[in-house]
Write a structure and sequence with these properties.
It is a single chain. This protein is an all-alpha fold. It has 25 helices and no strands. The protein has a domain of 253 residues. It is 70% helix and 0% strand. The longest helix has 27 residues. The chain is globular. The protein starts with 25 loop residues before the first helix and ends in a 7-residue tail after the last helix.
Length: 510
């Protein structure tokens, strides 16, 4: 969702993009490539019920064929998933998926690739990159760990909390790359204090805390991971439901707060198998903080812009209402019928923050070039796929076919969505998982939000997410350990997501 080079944090490392996960085996790619093409032609051109949607002609079949091709190629990673995301740009106009001629199809296919959510995510990535460049995120993480405590049990909790807190704002891959050397330094300090004995179990727990904290932390904010943006964009486009920054914070952050203690409990069961005694990690933390020196002017400036953006995001409803008449009046001179929506406001804040970082030279062009630009293409492709499902009439047919699932009690629907999402993301990228499932699940906000949260809950396999792959190369983790621990956490995630969604989060959208 990959390996990483362990260099000093200030070095120009280039972590793997979250849009491009660790690749699957070559045989899976070959099978996926052929299966995707076969499914496309079969669905598009073999007569079926898809040609019988009233007033739609063959358009639902063409859209379904494109979705099947994208889903199979995403899940098998037959080609880079950002390339797969571009298929609607070619196939939708060629097949005439939308009503109208070539130009309306071209416009409808291209519009999702310039959606405001892409600019919101881009601005968020720019803020995160500036924090990485000046090492502000590292200082924040070390301070959090220092406050929580330095004996082994508290250090493990501190590693989880610090990693999750950083991952709220920057990519899970960058978070894992940053936290890995800190974790290794802490393990080395504890091993030295214990007479040089290798802490295999505690070391595994700390490394897994880096991976799992990176994955789960991104659930908490709207810009934390690309799956959140896909979810918000999908429900706005398909269901007409706007999810502002604070509304998403109310959806995602409590789940992070609830799940981190579960992570801690499971990982401590592993860590305590080592005889840790009363050893402390204070010296390692103090040494890491001391090497950074006092907070620089550059760090303070980046922190000020980050805090300012966060304040404007959190106060978005009030501020947007105040400036909305002026903004709509100006834009309607060029764009008839323009409506100043929440996503436009939040994207504007993000891009102003990003532009300010560039103008003040707090974000270098080198760091800008290293941003995971493929993620933006993937987001656009996800939105385009959803637009084709809706615009072709396929959504009507899918709603009819999904009536049996929709007939289940809501608790059952949420449980199935949670299970499918967590299970599928174990073998496929989280972005591919959420893109596919959002398109086929009943359009209930509870069901859709459960799927979106579950897509970030992969704990079993190194290839599931970039953080899993990154820490697997540390030398402390054995595959059976990750699978055993991860299975327990996957089951815990399904249960918590189901209960959390049914009893809490679905009511946010009532």
């Amino acid at each position: 969702m990959n390996t990483a080079t362990l260099e000093p944090e200030g070095a120009a490392t280039e972590p793997a993009s979250p849009a491009e996960p660790a690749s699957g085996p070559p045989w899976m790619k070959r099978i996926g490539l052929i299966a995707g093409i076969a499914a496309f032609f079969a669905i598009a051109f073999i007569p079926s019920w898809l040609q019988g949607v009233a007033g739609a002609g063959p358009r639902p079949a063409y859209a379904a064929a494109t979705v099947a091709l994208m889903a199979i190629w995403w899940l098998s990673e037959a080609i880079p998933i950002s390339w797969t995301a571009c298929l609607p740009l070619l196939l939708y106009p060629l097949l005439g998926v939308f009503d109208g001629g070539l130009l309306p199809n071209l416009r409808a296919s291209a519009e999702p690739f310039v959606d405001a959510y892409l600019f919101l995510f881009l601005g968020g990535m720019m803020i995160g990159a500036a924090m990485e460049e000046c090492l502000l995120h590292r200082r924040v993480a070390l301070r959090i760990m220092r406050v929580i405590g330095t004996e082994p049990k508290r250090l493990l909790l501190g590693m989880l909390v610090a990693t999750a807190a950083v991952s709220l704002w920057i990519s899970n891959t960058a978070t894992a790359v940053m936290m890995l050397p800190i974790g290794l330094a802490l393990i080395a300090q504890l091993e030295a204090a214990g007479g040089g004995k290798r802490l295999r179990h505690f070391g595994s727990a700390v490394m897994l805390a880096v991976a799992y904290g990176s994955n789960v932390g991104g659930i908490g904010t709207k810009i934390g991971t690309s799956t959140n943006s896909i979810f918000c964009g999908f429900v706005q486009r398909v269901a007409g439901t706007e999810i502002g920054f604070m509304k998403y914070l109310a959806l995602g952050l409590p789940f992070v707060v609830l799940f981190v203690p579960i992570l801690w409990g499971v990982l401590w069961r592993l860590a305590r198998k080592d005889d840790l005694g009363a050893v402390q990690g204070r010296e390692a933390l103090d040494r890491e903080l001391g090497s950074m020196g006092p907070m620089s002017g550059r760090e303070k400036a980046v922190a000020a812009i980050f805090i300012g953006a966060a304040i404007f995001w959190m106060g978005g409803d009030a501020i947007r209402g105040w400036i909305r008449p002026a903004v709509e009046g100006a834009f309607r001179l060029l764009w008839t019928g323009y409506s100043f929506e929440t996503k436009h406001y939040e994207a504007g804040v993000a891009m102003i923050a990003g532009a300010s970082l560039l103008a003040l030279r707090l974000l270098s062009l080198a760091s800008l070039r290293r941003l995971p630009w493929a993620t933006l293409v993937l987001l656009g492709g996800s939105f385009a796929m959803a637009a084709g499902i809706d615009g072709s009439g396929l959504s009507t047919w899918m709603a009819i076919q999904a009536r049996h699932l929709a007939a289940l009690p809501l608790f059952g629907q949420i449980a199935l969505a949670s299970l499918a999402s967590v299970a599928l993301t174990a073998v496929a990228s989280n972005t591919g998982t959420v893109s596919v499932l959002l398109s086929v699940l009943p359009r209930s906000m509870g069901v859709l939000s459960a799927s979106a949260i579950g897509a970030s809950c992969d704990f079993m396999l190194p290839a599931g997410t970039p953080p899993n792959a990154i820490v697997f190369g540390s030398g402390y983790i054995r595959l059976p350990t990750m699978m055993k621990t991860g299975f327990l956490l996957d089951v815990s995630a399904v249960l918590l997501i189901t209960l959390y969604t049914f009893f809490y989060s679905r009511h946010l959208f009532a």
